[in-house]
Amino acid sequence: MTRMVVRLTQSVKRQLRRMRRKTRDKGLAMRCQIVLLSAKGRTRAAVAEAVGCGISWVYQMLARFREGGVASLIDRREDNGELKLDERYLGLLRELVDGSPQDYGYPRPTWTQELLVKVMQQKTGVKVHNGTMSRALKAIGARLGRPRPTVGCPWSKRAKKARLRALDRLIEALGPDEAAVYLDEVDIHLNPKIGPDWMNRGTQKTVLTPGQNVKRYLCGARDAASGRITWVAGERKNSGLFIGTLKALARVYAGKRAVHVILDNFRIHDSKASQAAVESLDGKIVLHFLPPYCPEGNRIEREWLDLHAEVTRNHRCRDIDELMRDIRAWLTRRNRAATHPPHKLAA
User: Fold this and answer.
1) Residue 329 has pLDDT above 90, yes or no
2) Which residues pair with 181 in a beta bridge?
3) Which residue among 22, 40, 73 closes a domain?
4) Could you report the per-residue pLDDT of 17-39, keeping only the tens digit for each?
5) For residues 225 and 170, what is the distance between their CA atoms, to the nearest angstrom?
6) Does residue 4 lie in a domain region?
7) In 23-150, which residue ranges form alpha helices assigned H by DSSP?
């Protein structure tokens, strides 16, 4: 096998070694290595074996280097035209994915790669293959997921933001004799919530359901500072469950002058019985209502998602008592991991 000897000056060798060491492009590092090994008098076959490529590829890279020098080793897509998936293209694609095809006059409510290719061509003048669009979606971290259903807030964006900012300022300005909590209820079903799980190919796991569903309800309050949760369980989601939680908060925060409770507009939070209970606590409990349909403003919502993910989804409990024991154990473990030691929780 003939030798493809390349003569390199010391400065060029240093440049190639530095480029090989610092680049994150494996292809560029391989091209630098081909030239450096050839400069040592290696045959084409030996170089190809050393870097793990074909002999013809070694020949092409050496010819490319002889013609254009070090700069020719950098892949600037001279043979394939201009780079299509540049930062501008990917930025526009990210904005496009956040919207809907219906925003651009198409009747289909969800995106396909073909539609993305078509709309991006209209916006940028650049047409790409579906496979290239797949790589572009991967590059921006897009995923095929299930949207979260929500109800639009009837307030204006300005009013909604103003209310949320006011609640944030309230928490920031808390005195040493005050506390703030986020309160919300969560439904517990004996029939398991079915969720994704890893399975071997060709198999499908089964989740045994008891058939007749049984429900329980939790009303919980997450401390804005420590993250600890005070909760009360009940068989009905009514004003009594809410009032029981307010009384539990009054006991837990007995050393505080006031407990600010941030909560949604569920009807049991503003019933006549709930209003009377708040008045009977002599200013100990102060209610602060979120804008309507604003679950993102209630920090305890995240805790309930974790509860379902770690306890109720695909569970194997045979009765509601066993499931509630698992839930109480989860809440206790979670409180132990909070900033401070957990409160004594309500029964």
Assistant:
1) yes
2) 223, 261
3) 73
4) 888 888 888 888 888 888 888 88
5) 12
6) no
7) 26-39, 44-51, 55-68, 87-98, 113-124, 130-139
